[in-house]
Design goal:
Length: about 290
């Protein structure tokens, strides 16, 4: 556990808190452990048996807690699988191969096969959006639709580590400033109790977890041109991690049928778009 955590004790504390969130998953669910070449992968399966499959991929320094509300709504019509990404602060293996190695594409393929999912819609945010694109550009026949929130690898990647790492090293004050800059919820009295708990959990992760430092590999125009399935992308104009205008323009040029929603005042931390994703998937997957 020491590879991705600042201390083993800090990692255990985060995972214990994660387990408390999982105990309050809003719909009946099953916790699955899928063996892969990168180690065991943790998956939360819920929703409607036999319905079209939707696989949800969280971002960096996160886990499947981010999908609790989304999984509840999407599960009314779809079979939902929230996957903890390897090398992140969830319950999957701490394995962290190089992003450019092709290992993540192979890992996700093993996860889907282990779940018995031959074809699925992929919903991804940030790093999870990059992973969804990585998989879909290589296996378009296995992806029925893509819903992407601030995906990496398309527009220019901003080097936020220059200011983020110093802030995160400044303790609670610095972590609060970091979360403000990315537009994440704050653990204060203005938020709902559920959002305060989520914000406090994010702060706990940021104080305990060793974030990735490598740059996301980019996608060529030819790779993006292979995405013939329905595509929804939501981008925030104030995103400090990715070049949202550049992402918008490249997607529009290479995927003419994509539904691209650019929100000038939104940040990287996009929340509250569950209904939009649900409507998109219903149109794309349900005859």
């Amino acid at each position: 556990m020491g590879g991705i955590w600042k201390t083993p004790a800090a990692g255990l504390a985060v995972l214990e808190r994660y387990a408390q969130f999982l105990a309050h998953w809003p719909k009946p669910c099953e916790h699955l452990r899928v063996p892969t070449s990168q180690g065991e992968t943790f998956v939360i399966a819920s929703g409607t048996p036999g319905a079209p499959a939707v696989v949800m991929l969280h971002g960096s320094a996160s886990n499947s807690v981010v999908w609790m509300r989304d999984a509840a709504l999407l599960g009314e019509r779809f079979g939902v699988y929230a996957v903890d990404m390897i090398g992140e602060p969830g319950l999957s293996a701490p394995s962290r191969p190089a992003l450019a190695s092709g290992a993540y594409d192979r890992w996700l393929d093993e996860v889907l096969s282990g779940l018995g999912v031959e074809r699925a819609a992929l919903v991804g945010i940030s790093l999870g959006g990059w992973l969804a694109l990585e998989y879909a550009t290589k296996h378009p026949e296995r992806v029925s639709a893509l819903a992407l929130l601030c995906p990496g690898g398309v527009g220019r990647h901003r080097n936020v580590l220059l200011w983020a790492l110093p802030l995160l090293a400044l303790g609670p004050w610095g972590r609060r400033k970091f979360m403000q800059r990315i537009g994440a919820p704050q653990p204060n009295g203005e938020a709902s109790p559920a959002m305060q708990a989520f914000a406090a959990f994010n702060d706990m992760i940021n104080s305990s977890f060793r974030v990735r430092r490598e740059r996301l590999p980019g996608f060529s125009d030819a790779a993006l041109g292979r995405l013939t399935m329905p595509v929804l992308t939501i981008l925030g104009g104030r995103d400090v991690f990715i070049d949202s205008p550049g992402t918008r323009d490249r997607l529009a040029a290479n995927i003419p049928h994509a539904d691209i929603r650019y929100l000038p005042q939104a940040s990287h931390f996009l929340i509250g778009h569950t209904d939009e994703i649900d409507a998109f998937l219903r149109q794309a997957l349900i005859p």
